[in-house]
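Hello, quick one for you while I still have it in my head. A protein chain has come my way and I'm curious about its shape. Can you walk me through what the tokens say about the fold? No rush at all, and the record is pasted right below.
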Amino acid sequence: MFEWIMNPEAWVALLTLTALEIVLGIDNIILISILVSRLPTAQRQPGIIIGLSLAMVMRILLLISLAWMMKLTEPLFTVFNQEISGRDIILLVGGLFLVAKSTHEIHHAMQPEFTENGKEIEKKRVSFVSVLVQIGLLDIVFSLDSVITAVGMASHVPVMVIAIIIAVLIMMLAAKPIGDFVESHPTLKVLALSFLILVGVALMGEGMDMHIPKGYIYFAMVFSVIVEMINIKMRKHLLK
């Protein structure tokens, strides 16, 4: 079980896989931060911690059940000469939910409701349990991508599990600063939600066997963030 410790290639795979898990988990952090933003302030940090913990447990369970994972790729039925597997259904439903949820949040941000005297109505609070259920369901979708990457990068299950645990612990430390920063900059929040729509469309494309290179998506995200950070700095200088 621990023979991989003396294998240099396993350590290289551990470092590389940990970095990839963190990159693949950025969209997960953004989504969790936006979902918990509807909770009372005191419940937001516990929601982030529990949400990321759910993601970690989900990924480890999927890794342990590799045999079941392989069955997900077997065709269940055919639609218009397109074979549909269990994995395709999960990606399609998850991608569709991600697009719908992100679009709803953008609409809410762009058109807030007001009372008769002109005051903005406070955001409707949601229950802690309902937020955790949404996070858990979407963790399954994000975990599929993460686990498939892990299986392709490393041949030792302990290496994959350790990489996932390290990545999630780092994400737990980074989640609150990222969430606070996104929440305090409305335009950046809309941009983050647009990223999630892009990810949702990519997931649906994967579910229909239309493979979209992840590099294109992440390049578009990084480029957009750089442009928006420049805009934020410019606005600060103009306000001064």
Summary: The first helix runs from residue 8 to 24. The first strand starts at residue 75 and ends at 79. The mean pLDDT is 76. The CA atoms of residues 106 and 190 lie 6 Å apart.
